[in-house]
Write a structure and sequence with these properties.
With about 80 residues, this protein is mostly beta strands. The chain is built from no helices and eight strands. The strands form two sheets. Strands 1-8-6-3 form a four-stranded antiparallel sheet, with no helix packed on it. The protein has a four-stranded antiparallel sheet with strand order 5-4-2-7, with no helix packed on it. The relative contact order is 0.38.
Length: about 80
Amino acid sequence: MTKITLPELGEGIDQATVACIHFRQGDTIEQEDDLLEVVTDKATFNVAAGTAGVVKEILVKEHQEVKIGETLALIEP
């Protein structure tokens, strides 16, 4: 199982808000697919899956604030 976490987004940014989730539990995802979109007070960022597989669980909801390093989803290869 692969944990997808919120990556470093830039200097001085320690959290973001989930704007849009592009996949649901059970969907097949490719490594280059954007799993979700997050926004900060500085910019909007896409978070890529980074691995191919099946989305086992989405651990966040739209409009939820998340911290850098927080687990967003679990993907099973």
